[in-house]
Each structure stands twice: as C-alpha cells, then as structure tokens.
Amino acid sequence: MIPNKFEYIRPNTLQEALSILSAYREDAKVLAGGQSLLSLMKLRLASPKYLIDLSGVPELNYIREESGRGNSARIAIGALTTYAQIKESAVLQAKSPLLVQTTHLIGDVQVRNRGTLGGSLAHADPAGDMPAAILALGAEIKAVGPKGARWIKAEDFFVTAFTTALSFDEIVAEVRVPVLKGYKTAYMKNAPRPSDFAIVGVAVCLQPDGGRTCQNITIGITGVTDKAYRAVGVEESLRGKQLDPKIIEQAASRVTDGVEVNGNIHASKEFRSYLASIWVKRAIQAAMSGA
Amino acid sequence: MLKLEEILVTRNWVGKPVRRKEDTRFVMGVATYVDDLDIDCHHVAFLRSPYAHARILKIDTSKAEALPGVIAVITGQEIARQTKPVVPRAFNKPAVQYVMAVNKVRYVGEPVVAVVAENQYLAADALDLIEVEYEALKPVVTIEDALNPKSPLIFEEAGSNVLLHDKMVHGNIEEIYKEADLVIKEHFKVHRYSSTPLEPWAIIVKYERANDSFVVWSNDQQHGRSIVNVCHTLGISTDKLRFIVPDSGGGFGVKLALWPYIVTLALLSKKANKPIKWIQTRTEHLLGGTHAPDADVEIDLALKKDGRILGLCIKDIQNDGSFVHTTGIYGLIKFATMSGCYNIKATSAELVSVVTNKGPTVQNRGVGKPTMIFVLERMVDLAAKKLGLDPAEMRFRNFIQPGQMPHTTPSGEVYESGDYPECLRKGLRHLGYDEFRKRQKDLRSKGRYIGVGISAGVEPGTSNLGYYYTSRGVPEYMGNAEGAIVGVDYDGNINVLLGSVDSGQGHATTTSQVVADMLAIHPDRVSMTNQLDSIISPFLGHSGVYSNKFNDVDLGAVIMATKKVRDKMLRIAAHMLGVDRSKLKLKDGTIYSSENGAKAVSFKEIASVAYKRILLLPEGEEPGLKEIAYYKTPFAKMPSRENFNIQITHSNSVHIAAVEVDVESGSIRLDRYIIVHDCGNQIHPEIVRGMAIGSTVHGIGASLYENFVYNEDGQLLASTFMDYLKPLSVGLPNFEVVHMESPCPYSLLGTKSAGEGGAITSLTALANAVEDALSPFGVKVTSLPLAPEKVVKAIRETKEI
Lengths: 291, 801
Fold this sequence. Notes:
A: 14 strands, globular, B: 801 residues, Aldehyde Oxidoreductase, domain 3, 8-stranded mixed beta sheet, 5-stranded mixed beta sheet
C-alpha cells in the first residue's frame, strides 16, 4: 500500500476524537474497520491528511436492548461493533434478526472481523449491504459532534455515493434498530461471487397479518443506484395485498421506479434493473418462508 | 536414452506423496522473495500513460526532480538514446518499440517516466509532479478496429496493424474436404484474461561502479533468455550482468516479460549510485503485466455422417495488444495441437496477429491451447448435435486409439502415449453419466436446468523453442534443455543446483525423491538451493520455469549430474574397497560389495577421500564430488514448416463438469467437476493432483469471471481485484481427480507435463455443460466468459452466448 502522506492519530475517547476532527475539519477522515477507506487510500482515491483511528475508543462497541422513546423497545448498537459481533449476537438474532441475516452475506471472515456497522454507514458505499438493512428496519443513527448528539433517520442519512447527512465534524456513535414483533425479515443479494459487493442487495421487513396478507412491508435496496434507498413503489403495491406470486412479481417490477440505475462491467443498467426485480421477489419469498 | 532401471537403484520415493520440503519456509513466512532481500535500496515508481493511444508532446520532470528525496528521473526519450529497441520474436515487419514509451503511448499503463526516490512513497508522490502533454490519438481496441484499413496504425513503420499473417496447411486438406459428407462452420470469440500470481514482478538492480557492471535480483521466469535480452538491449556484454533469481511466488508465464523493466532499472541504478528496487503493484500488474490475447476464431470441420472428423480449418485472429517481443507467438504455438485428441488427417491454420492499444500479451498458462481446445471441443459438441450423436459417443468415434500410439499429427507433433477412450470411460463411470441424464430430465420437468459438459484435451509440455522459425529465419533458440549441478558434501549429503527456480511447483521435493532413489538414501539428505545465480548456477538459453519442462529436461539434467556423481563415487569406492565396480551396490548412503556385505564405505568416507585425503583417490581421478550436467531432450525435431514438433511430451485429460443454471438470473452453479488426468508416471501424486486442480480453477475463472474488459477508449475497466474477479474457494465444487498413468517413452522417468492441463481443457467443459443445461432454450455457446447477463440475454433473445 502506497498512500499519500497522512498523519495517524489514535484518540482514546470519543470526545477527544471529536475535538481532533473539529480542528482538522475536511482534511481529516475517521477510520473504523478500514475495510473500505484503506482501499481508497491505497489507490490514492482518498487522501486524508489526518487519519483518526477510533480503534482506541472502547465506548462505541456494544449491543444492548433498550426501551426506546415511546413504547417500542429498541436495540442499541455501538458504531464500532463489528459485523462478526453482530453475526454472533443472540439478542439481535432473537429480537431483530435482519442485521444478523445481512452479515452472513458481507465479505469474508476477515472483512467481518474488521468491518464495523458505523463505518459501513458513514462510508456510504452505494453497494454496501448494511445501508439496505438499516433502511428496511427504519433505524435511527446517532451522530455526535461538537454541539452534542442528534438522531438522523435512516431514510434521511444517505445523500449520494460516499456522502451522508453527517457534517464534517460529526461521528456516528450508535445505531438503534427496533425490536421486531410479528415481522419476518430477509436479506438477499446478487453478486458475481459470494463475497463481492452487491449488484443488487435487498433487505425486507415484512409484517403479515397472520394469513397471506401483507399488513406492512419495508424494503431497502442497495447496489442499484448512487445510494441505498427504500423501494417505496414496491412497498405501496404490496401493503394490504395478498402475497401471491403474481402480485409479488408485479410489485417487484417497480423496484427501480424513479431511480437512476447504475451500470458497470458486472451488470448493465438494464440487467441490474432486471436483477433488482428478481431479487426483490426472491427476498420477499425468503422473508415469507423464514422466521 | 537411459532406462528406468539404470536410473533408479531403489523404488522407495519416486511415486510417493512424501511431505513437501518447501512448505515450512513458505508457511512460516521466512521464504526470501525479492522484496525480502536485505538490501538497502532506493525505490522506483513509474508514471504510466492514462491514454490508450496518444502522442507525447512534452514531458516536464523539473518539479519532480526538485522534490526532496527524489534521486533520479528517466524518460522514454532518454531510454531510447541509450538502448536498442525490443527485438520481436515472431514477425518480420519493422515495428520499433523501446522498453518505455518514447514518442507515443500505445496502451493505458505504458511506462512514460520512471522516478527513483529514497522511498516508495516519495517516488509515488513525485509522479504527481510530472507534467506530460499528450495529443490523444484514436484508439485501436478491438480486432475489428485493428483490421479496419481506416484505423490509425499502432506502429506506422509496419504499414499495417497486422504484424503476422501466416498459413500452415498439413495433409491433403482439399482432398479431405471432398471426401466429407458435411462441413460445419462456427465463429468463436475468446476474451482476454491472464494469471495473477500472488507475487507480482519484482526487481532490484545494483550498479557496480568498480567494473561498470550490474547485479540483478528478479523473480524472472526465463532468466536464460532474459540475460541475453537485457544485455542486448543495454548494449553490454554478458559478463557485465550477474543475474540472481530468489524465491518466486508464482509465474504462469506472466513473468517471462518483466525483463524490459530490468533494462530501465539498470540505467537508473547507474544514476542512483545505490541499489534500486521496484515491486509491481497489483494494478500495474493488471494493466500491463501481462495478458493472454483475446481471439477471434473461425473454424470448420469436415465430417462423415457417422461422426468421423476428417479435417479441420481455422482462421485464428489474435489481439496481441502492444508488446512486439511476443506478438504473434500464440498462433505459432497453438496451431500444433489443433487436432486435439482426435485422428484428424489434415489441418489448415491461417494465423493472424494484430496489434492494438490493449495491454501487452505474453505466454500465459497453456499459451493459446485453451483457446484451441475450446473451439475444437465446442465444435465436437455442435457436430454431435448436428449428427444426432451423444457428445461422448462422438468423441469415442474420433479418439486416437491406444494401439495407434505414438501418433503423429498432420503438422508433426508426436503424441507418445495415452489411452484417450479409457480416460473418457473412467470419467463417465465416475460421474454416473446415464443416471445424470435421467436426473436432468426429471429436473427439467420441475423447471430446473442441469447440464453436463465433456471436454478432452491434450496438454503439451517442453517447448521445442524453434517454433517461430516458421516466419523469421533460423531461430536463436532451438530444442529444449536444462542444466544441473549435483554435489556430495563433506558429510555425504547431497545438494542440487538447477538452472530453473521453483515458483510453487515443488522442485526441491520432487528432485529429492529422484536423487534419493538414484543414490539409495533418504530424501532428507538431499537439499536444493532454490536460487539461480548466473555466476554459480548452471543455465542455458532455455533455462527457466515454463512450458511444463521440469519433469522432462530439468529432471533430466539432475539425473545426468547425479549419475556422474554416482559413477565417480562407485569408482572411488571400488578403489577403496578393492572390489570390482560391477560388484558394488548402493544402500542407505553406503556403497558395499554384493559378495561381501562387510566391505562397505559410506558416502561420508568417500567424500573424505574426494575432498581431503586426495592421495587415496584412484589413479587419474580428479578430486571433488560435484558434477555438472546438461540434458537436452533428444526428441526435438529440426525446425521445418512441414514437420515440426512444437512440444515434446503430451499429457491428456478429460474434464466433466456438471452445472446448474439459474435461468432467471443467469448464474451458474458448479455441481460436480471430474478431472481424469494422464501425465505419464507421477513422481509426486499429490503435487500432480494439486496442479490438476489449480490449473482447472484457472480455467474456471476464465470461463466464469475473469475478463479484462476495455471500453471503446481503450481504458481497462478491470484494473483491481474488485473488478478483475478471480474464482474463490467458495463456489467451487470438490474436485474429483482420477489419475491414469501412460508412461512417456520419451522422457527419462516416463513423466509428461502436469502444470497446464486444467487451464486448457476446462473452458469447454463448462461451456458444453452450460449449453447442455440450456438445450431446451436452444442456446449455443460461442464465446466466453459465461457471464450471467449474456446467459439471460441468450435464453430470452439472442439464443447465443
């Protein structure tokens, strides 16, 4: 790895990290697991002058159940929690399994051991897996900055490729996901090889009414355009409907409505769009047949 | 030729899967690759062309030179003043190219300026300060572009983008076609891919001011020839270059072409006054270091109604990119095996090599034979379909029969041994072919599509290097050979120095097995120095690791040198024991009298006489116990257009792939994969098995994932491992390897080649399997890779992948 010159700083508290970030502003980048940022620095596509490594900040690594605002119970996940920790979390598996399902399809063992939830969200790769899951869950992201903390809704968080609603002096500290009762979830992705970034990734939270009728559904899509998004058109077409194969297929065809679809050497615009509808269908079917 | 029983005095080690000697070093991370050498170096970085085709108007390096820590800078102009152009091996037309771009750039990634700095970071920083003015020219990217008379010329002085156009006809092709009941034609396209060894190119050059000479450390694959190339290009005599090859992390052919960089580093080392180092990055490697050419092949088969193939004609156009040294070579190598495993009486090969603004091409694992077997084995399936025959039956009707061995192909290639029908029978039995067909039918009725693909290929080994005689006069290199030094040390242990350097094949292990059985000792007492030093090691112009030559000529040299040492030890022992030489035998590191076992001397005692008590040597015997020998394959024919064997040994394999295609998404799942492999006698069956699987995975990568995609501007869109996709262990089946052993009568140990077969035979196994799976949709496979998008499109619209 031959990056541009940078200064490496390893603070011991979140507060310290924030004050360094405030001082260096746009010249600084925050390093979590390094699974995406370091690749960009290697190619000199990212050249931060200051790299603030959060690995010395222990307070951001946890998974705990909390009673949230209002009545709904929530699970709070520290930003530096790794994919591997999420994958092994009994609490998440029992009460909000979508993130666990998602981690099964992220990278390989090494990536899961290093990569973090907060890092993935803040990096906002248009083909990252976690953003789709976060959107489907309607999660909230806690951003902390010099003026304190604020909560950002997942659907407001992703702005465009590698750009989020975070201001330059803010750090993702926590993600809160709802405890799901009566929901079925699934994450599925199409990728050239199992550990690759998604050509299309689909996260589904489905609330059936006991029968085959869809009471509520939220769908997060990644890999298709410049950012992860909610497939609102599909959701609308399914709410209150019988989940018959035909209806699902028709609804799924709306997945790229109003979206500027990306094309590259692994899938053209048209093919990606086609695959997205197929994978939405498959993810809904997987959610229906799953727990 | 020596007989096997004259070579091996015991049979304890050859043929057994002994523990590999190399692995401990590699697994512990204590091997010595170029980058591990403890040499204090400055570092080199290359500024590379962002354009596929452009004139260089102006280069300003002043800001880079002013950067603190920058030691020296060199441009292509300066290189051209101090060196000779790169010598083309295969074609005659004028095409002047230096080791760096001079007046124009010809591919994205071509080196334009090289910088030496105190460390690699500063060297990379300095590149950002170099200003180059380009005038963009229209890029010539595809074969169609290159053949279009309106396209610009890559080499103006050549007058054409076609640098080689030859036609080789063998047998009475016109008569044969008159006898045919039908002729089928097809047009295939094979994409660009390559190997990507774990360790990319690596070079250190030290300039020795005292005698105006250079020391080079590099993981070069064919140093015998590279020494000649570097010295010629620099215009120095060969005594001015000491060439050292340490450990090398994989070659696969791509390391045959790193020598132009040695030339640049040599010139820079003179300026730097300190050793300088360049370790290629992965992106540099993918951009230009190097590819197998993409090819466009028209083929027709002349057939009898009963399925017999009488003759075949191909027109092969290869896109050789932009490196004149190897342009044209592929066609000249691959046409020789165009008749595959079959009794075909006449062949015609029209060979066209074009240059374009794609990256350089160099011999890569199998060198064109993957393409050749792909088109042939696809045609066999298409012919079977046309004639209503089962693809297995079609092959049985055409195979060269074991009783017909040795078989000479129309162009003069000699297949020495093998039982091709039995290989296929074994494979079909192993799969359970009939049951598979039943299951296929059942599953189809449930909307699932599985398919089986058969491919039979020959895997030639040991190049007879005169092949480019066909177009360029008397070749500089002919035949094939290697050198070895075998020494017995003070303690009676054996050390071997070879003219080639292992890059993963297990030379030390295999050599120790052979030497152990030649001297009746344990392989632990045989070591190999895995390094070549041109002032110490034996080497020839042929030296290196390429074209599967190890089992044949490398071990040939080891055997000959070991035999010399053994003969000398026997002479000394006879003298020491007062026993006639014919009565002596070897056992456990001693030589003893077969008539009186008490009369025995150990190797150590013999060594003591050879090295120290030299007055006890027999009359006229030289002191010392170290012997050098060279071994040349005796079966290389003289260059001739009519009758020439391009390679000496011919292994063969049958691959059977079983796949399932998801017809909705186009993705292909490998269900089973059977390799029936015959490489003659095996010295180390586990190494052979590993190579059979490894090379097959290479072909699977090429068939499914790996693709150097260029856009119309000539930009490479797969310049990192995010986009150039290698196969992963996840997604591969458990390979079922079945061995056959048909000993080769033309190599000392009855061995043939083992390192390339999978890469040759596998492409069609997958293609045929996918076509078989999709037969209800009428889809025909005429190109690779089998990308999901192409699969879906073919099912829904085009009917052709």
